[in-house]
Amino acid sequence: MKRAIPRPQARADVKSEVRYYRQHAGQTTVAKLAGAIDDALQLLQREPGIGSTRIGEFLNIPGLRSWRLTDFPLVWFYFERDDSLDVVRLLGERQNIIAILGDNPGE
Fold it and tell me: What CATH number does residue 31 fall under?
């Protein structure tokens, strides 16, 4: 099992999403979101290779993987390292992911 280590921007992304859902959907949805965020990271820690490399390949960012949360339009972006997961961002599917990651590849 590889430990997930979120970068500061990934932690800020989580806070932003929690704030948004609290404001627009309420505390019950926020609790479900928190569970989905944690569940996705737990799964990635157990099976880090399951994330898609498609966006990383498109942007020419070797090793960048992505994994969508269950029931929420959010995607984790991370690199698998020898002993950990370098968690770069949590982005919404409606965001311009290509522009965001292309401007700041997270390397």
Answer: 3.30.2310.20
